[in-house]
Amino acid sequence: MSWTxxxxxxxxxxxxxxxxxxxxxxxxxxxxxxxxxxxxxxAGRNPSAVRDAAARVGDAVRGTVRxxxxxxxxxxxxxxxxxxxxxxxxxxxxxAGVMAPPRPTTTTDGFELQFGTNHLGHFVLxxxxxxALAAAEGGRVVTVSSVAHHSGDESVLDANAGTAYNAQRTxxxxxxxxxxxxxxxxxxxxxxxxxxxxxxxxxxxxATRLFSSRQxxxxxxxxxxxxxxLLKLTTQSPATGARAVLYASCVAEPGSYTGPQRLGETRxxxxxxxLSAYADDERLARRLWxxxxxLTGYSYDWRPRPTA
Length: 308
What we know:
Helix content: 25-40%
CATH architecture: 3-Layer(aba) Sandwich
Radius of gyration: 18 Å
Strand content: 5-15%
Strand order of the largest sheet: 3-2-1-4-5-6-7-8
């Protein structure tokens, strides 16, 4: 389909949180949502970077933009952010991520950095914000995955800690975890008759800081210097990549997975993205959910609760 962000509905009165929103896909997603009238919280681990991004976006949109500190590699930070939330939340976009650091790195809680940030942080954040999402009319969770999820497999249950470190394999497993989570969240919500919906999306390949971040592939100087100009010449812009996330945020059917359709799903018009056999495995999704609860010490409380 030839859908673009211009087709977004009027979002005045809607409230959204976008993680990893100070650059790349997250920033473009937040900008488009706020451009159509939403109040958007830009959540990121670097307070000054998030404030600067919010100031730039706020000058160019009709909606309201607010910065907030959120480090998904820290359960304490995730809890602090979620527990300070007040009022309904219409949309949570689980976008933040780390990609393929060359050497094994851990979160403040001791998890492998990619699995801990990309999956476990969002797993806890979503659960803690469910009451706020349920308090909104048609609350929605969008989880951003990647074509790299096809390189993930059943070793995802080891939380990237069970074998010798391989940067690309661990990244693939973390993005597989994103998809397994999004699909299982959809099943859990549907089984309980919840008004909250869950979708997933991937941007294809876009020229973002994910490639040059010092926490990820950008830890290598050559990658950090060469990736930005090369990506601009050969891949989509962040604005183009954000289309799938925006479509999943406002249009896509619950339980769907949206992405570009051409050149191995790296670019092109949007449509249903392809799930790997592992991503489509309900048993694996349930097992990962239980593993995530055990690792984080956090279990979802499905009881309806009022929000202030």
